[in-house]
Amino acid sequence: MSIENSIAGNAVLRFLVRDWGRRSVIGIPYLFLILLASVPFLVVLKISVSETDGIRFQDLMSYADGMIQLKIKLSNYIFLGTDSLYIQTYWSSIKFASLNTIICLLIGYPFAYFMARSPANIRPALLMLVSLPFWTSYLLRVYAWKGLLDDHGVFNNILIWLHVIDDPIKMMHTGFSMTVGMVYAYLPFMILPLYANLVKMDLRLIEAAKDLGATPWQTFWLVTVPLSKNGIIAGAMLVFIPSMGEYVIPELLGGPGTLMIGRVLWDEFFSNNDWAMASAVAVTMVGLILVPLAIFNKYQADSGGVRGI
Amino acid sequence: MSSRFGKAWLLAGYAFLYLPILTLVVFSFNDSKMVTLWGGFTLKWYSVIAHDTEVVDAFLLSLKVALMSASASVLLGTLAAFAMVRYKSFWGRTAFSAHINAPLVVPEVITGLSLLLFFVMCERLFGWPDRGILTIWAGHTSVGMAYAAVVIQSRLLEMDKSLEEAAMDLGCKPAQVFFLVTLPMIAQSLMAAWLLTFTLSLDDVVSTAFLSGPGSTTLPIVILSRARLGLNPTVNAIATITVAVVSIGVFAGSLWLSRQETRRAAEQAAAYREGMGQAVSA
Fold first, then answer.
1. Cα distance between residue B201 and residue B136, in whole Å
2. Global pTM value
3. Could you tell me if B10 lies within 8 Å of chain A, comparing CB atoms?
4. Which of A81, A126, A168, A196 has its CA 20 to 30 Å from the CA of residue B93?
5. Which of residues 88-127 of A touch B (CB under 8 A)?
């Protein structure tokens, strides 16, 4: 009996000790992420459907009369789906994020293309110059546009000095200032994956197209662009997804007409103190992000798991 | 496409990326109440921020948080990267990989809100933690470790495993292999990951706003509250100092890297010559 016990005990001990390295390498970061990413999101999910009792959120599950009751309040979500201001905000977020992505692609694709086709010895410097602004504060770079686009800002001052205009043009706190700020902040995120893709491209394919009589434009549209599809998708996702949830740019450069969902969530939480509503907004936001993310993953899987970033 | 057009496009692009930063720097030396109207050269805004206890205290707190969260991020990120690269199958690996990549795409307002509500719940249940440096650290580390994991993971993937195998064949214990072979080989990516997470933490404003409490204001929170009210020359001065520090850091870093490369190439060549010499004499 005691011998059997000690054998069993040894087996358990050996099981625990075996691979302790492997267990802790996986377990420690996993635990940390579950505790600080999954659990908090579940809390948000719970609060978004909880009944409030004064200031406290009630438990979803309760036990009464021998029955387990599950109470879920969906009024926040129903409100989100029917309130015209919220629908407008979601729509406007998608619109601004899409506009930002398209402009970044239009500027960033030729930029990355010329970077990749420049002499090999200056490419590292060109690359460093694109990523350098990334190391300086994002907040300060957005703030810089306030000084440029203000009614008494640098651009208006120059235009008035040149007698192009007599009165300042209203640029700040409009859709224009917000779009400029977003393109400025996210352009490197478009350029870097595109460059990584274009610089690795097999140039013999382009020569082959030329040899077979394609014009430079045909070569570009029929060979280069299709080959860089993965870079385009990676860049578009890196721009589109974070700009959907942007807060700082709409706050500093946007105006009353530039509704963004991230800013509405912030106001719902900090100004209205409506935690349940803020949580419901957060949950729907995650839902909105999952759609482009799923498309991105599908494309990555199709291309044989080529890493876009 | 003509190369002249290409050069013009690149030049215009770089101008777009750098002109705003340049104007920030120029107007930090502006001796005028109007922030965007030139009124002569001055250094007074620098002396103003040096004596501004709100700015100085916030900067010191930011520095402390960034040092702590960058170090924790690299430590946890290294573990996560090893888990992903070296253990091809374990229970919940897909979920693990999703957990690592999620913080990279989830908007910061959501990270901030969810962590805050979680900490509030913990506080109600256990009376701990208060909002402050610890909660900010936790928020920055949960995002930072994801970035660190991605950087270190890509280095581990391209690393030549045969060197580790050789060390093991020659009788090294796993710990010796790690500290004598693996660690020196990934040291550069650890450094890069540390710098990246340090900057991210130093910059972070959105999730910090959710997670900071009274008396724990970081520098970006101070900048945001001033920038909201309009243009402020002290913000320009802070920006100029940031730009200067970053430029010096990046320049020194790239110099160090190229020196390392040269030295490593020389060492490899020397080792190769020596090895050949021994082979010939044997």
1. 9
2. 0.84
3. yes
4. A196
5. 107, 110-111, 113-115, 117-118, 126
